[in-house]
Description:
single chain, alpha/beta, Aspartate Aminotransferase, domain 2, Aspartate Aminotransferase, domain 1, 2 domains, seven-stranded mixed beta sheet, 9 helices, globular
Amino acid sequence: MQKPNLRPVVPHFSSGPCAKRPGWSPENLKHAALGRSHRAKEGKAKLVEVIDRSRQLLGMPADYRLGIVPASDTGAVEMALWSLLGARPVDLLGWESFGIEWVNDVTKQLKLKDVRPITAPYGRLPDLAQVDWSHDVVFTWNGTTSGVRVPDGNWIADDRQGLAICDATSAVFAMDLPWAKLDVVTWSWQKVLGGEAAHGMLALSPRAVARLESYTPPWPLPKIFRLTKGGKLIDGVFAGETINTPSLLCTEDQIDALRWAEGIGGLKSLIARSEASLEVIADWVAKTPWVDFLAEDPVTRSCTSVCLKIVDPAFLALPDADKTAAVKALVAPIEKEGVAFDIAGHRDAPPGIRIWCGATVETSDVAALTHWLDWAFAETRPTFKKTA
């Protein structure tokens, strides 16, 4: 098979950090408040701009609080878990590596006893009907390492007594979140809008704020996790007064990404861009015998972290360790050609391919990549046969 002629213009398909927005340049950061305190008027105004533009772009309810917190999405999730859990029993949903991380945090670090892990293998969702909404419920909206997302919020009870705590880092800005169904939502800058690392976002519903102000967990809280003082929410966290020092260069980059998103039509356009790329991959998979989606149910297929499994008999006959090596062999010539970087599946997932299709990725680049995948598979399949 000949090499394709058409190449992706941007070869960045990593699932985090993700591709910069189309047309991005360091020149876009020239107005960053560098060398200034984040507590100064200019620095704080930049942080507030990120909060305000994010709220507006996402259509967040006016009575929800939104703040910038340290340590990316992981920091935001752990801040929520350490600060809120323990008041009620907890249901923990896990169907890929990050959801399982939160299961481990709650059971092994917080050591809560009244906990129910509700899990499923890669490619599937757990039985959502098992969830008890008198409990607090912790879940990912989109499984970044499995490509499996919850299809909607219909399974979340409107009259829930517990809190719905949602890690939405690879869903926010690419999927339509039902805010009234969610009490805690976290994400990071480096996902769908292609921002820079180390900054997380934490959104709290009035119910979550009420929990914070009425419940004190029995364990000590590190300073960077503290959201209350004297039994009251620290309002400054949600008004640009960050708990630790943020990067104002990264902040400027996030402002640039948010302005770009507004300029192309807002949330609907961001979602449409991601869904269009998913559709391109779905069309390719439908006519390609060697590959399939890892997500078994089409309605659960992610439109951002699109995870694929190799179903060619020669590959399936390999021992598991050799499958991992075979995937590396498959993606190596594509990387060598400078066509696509970071498309091997996550190390904890079944060996396969993961293509980021968030809103900053052009659908035309995804389409071009599929031809290169066919070429690379044709080049490396004889290796599978020899190894098997």
